[in-house]
Design goal:
alpha/beta, globular, seven-stranded parallel beta sheet, 2 domains, six-stranded parallel beta sheet, about 425 residues
Length: about 425
């Protein structure tokens, strides 16, 4: 980068809070260096952009949005039914969920790709950035930049397997936690479906690419496309060696842990007792599975620890009476609480996993979908927690898993946490893009 003038960083992100939070945190390294940061995204997460002190330009990359807590009734017509269909699939199990997501992939990832791509190119022309960071899952955005020959840093906010390597196919987890034992026939059918979706998605990508740039080389596998510099928002210590060696040019960012504003109620609750507590969150929309949350609540009552519970889109009435002294709200400052938690119960989303290990918090992971299974397997493999199947796990099994997490030897986890805090993702991204 030319340091003789104010550098402009453009961040391109879908209209989803869970994606923007780590990407915006990366942008703080530029902001704190006196540079200009512009975020191209939709209106639902405009308040988050503003909270970071960044500029925003409008860019709608998909039909749906997620401002932080997502409910089906808040989505556009069609997206509401799709979200309800996804929730129903999670109740049927892992394979049904992954199959549902695979079948929805074209409309999810390639919404009006040519129009969106041209809108992306118009934003780049207007903003005139010196550097660009793009969410890996913003496929139409990366398509636009590839078609125009524009260089960018490709940030994978998720488990590294979201970029399929040789022999893998997008949407088919390369590894499973021990608690999941899908039948060989189910797995074969899922793999065949994912292969068909990958072929269809690649055809859609190539058709759009040809319209945007007729001289461009078609892709052999659009899900395997990536930017010149791949940045993985994931700790290298959790990635298996074979994958690390097979990845294209890349840098592991570790984690992108944001600073959160003070919260008087949370700070008072933390100060009210020195007793250990467990943080519970199933994210912005899987929290609708209050049947699973209710089992976790009963298990935690048996363990006898304090609890901070983020309800998300769940209905508190589904959980029955909760013990006095628990901190229960729709939304809680996750980073603030993980900084003091003794353990956490999570669906295994990327933000939850990376933020927990940044503070050395052992996990009980109940994965529902996408790359959560591979992420849970990594936590289990490295001895940093326990993974259970959310639909099948009993209260007794959850109780044992929570007790195990609380008693987990912490030396290796503490070493990882120290490394992640000493070299935050924002600094790693800034250095990698400044070379």
């Amino acid at each position: 980068m030319d340091r003789a003038h104010i550098v402009t960083l453009l961040i391109i992100c879908p209209d989803y809070a869970s994606h923007l939070l780590p990407l915006a945190t990366l942008g703080t390294a530029w902001r704190d260096s006196g540079e200009r940061v512009v975020v191209a995204t939709g209106p639902a997460i405009a308040p988050i952009v503003e909270s970071f002190g960044f500029e925003r330009v409008h860019l709608q990359l998909g039909k749906g949005s997620n401002p932080g807590v997502i409910r089906a009734e808040d989505q556009p017509q069609g997206e509401d039914d799709a979200l309800r269909g996804f929730f129903d699939a999670t109740r049927r199990g892992m394979v049904d969920t992954l199959a549902f997501q695979a079948e929805a992939r074209l409309s999810d990832f390639m919404w009006e790709p040519v129009r969106v791509a041209r809108a992306v190119q118009a934003v780049v022309e207007s903003v005139a950035p010196d550097a660009i960071i793009v969410d890996h899952l913003a496929f139409s955005s990366r398509l636009a930049l590839d078609a125009a020959g524009i260089s960018y840093a490709d940030v994978l906010v998720g488990h590294p397997s979201a970029l399929p390597l040789a022999g893998e196919v997008y949407g088919f987890p390369p590894a499973w936690p021990a608690a999941f034992q899908p039948g060989s026939g189910d797995l074969r059918a899922l793999r065949e479906l994912c292969d068909r979706v990958s072929e269809s998605f690649t055809a859609e990508w190539n058709a759009a690419l040809a319209e945007l740039n007729p001289s461009a080389t078609p892709s052999a596998n659009a899900f395997a496309e990536h930017g010149e510099l791949l940045m993985l928002n994931y700790p290298e210590e959790l990635a298996d060696d074979a994958r690390k060696q097979a990845l294209p040019k890349h840098v592991f960012l570790g984690s992108s842990v944001r600073e959160e504003n003070p919260d008087a109620e949370v700070d008072a609750w933390l100060a009210s007792s020195d007793e250990p507590f467990v943080y519970v969150s199933f994210g912005s929309f899987l929290s609708v599975r209050t049947d699973v949350t209710e089992k976790v609540v009963r298990a935690l009552e048996s363990v006898g620890v304090r609890v901070a519970l983020a309800l998300g889109s769940g209905d508190r009435r589904d959980l029955g009476d909760l013990p006095d002294g628990w901190l229960v709200r729709e939304f809680l400052p996750q980073v603030r609480l993980l900084g003091s938690a003794a353990a956490a119960v999570t669906h295994g989303g990327n933000n939850s996993v990376t933020e927990a290990v940044t503070f050395g918090v052992p996990l009980v992971v109940l994965p529902f979908s996408t790359d959560q299974f591979a992420g849970a397997e990594a936590i289990e493999r490295e001895g940093f927690g326990v993974a259970l199947a959310p639909n099948e796990a009993t209260v007794a099994e959850l109780q044992a898993a929570i007790a195990s997490a609380l008693a987990l030897p912490r030396l290796r986890l503490d070493e990882l946490a120290l490394n992640l805090r000493q070299a935050p993702g924002s600094a790693r991204a800034f250095n990698a893009m400044s070379e």
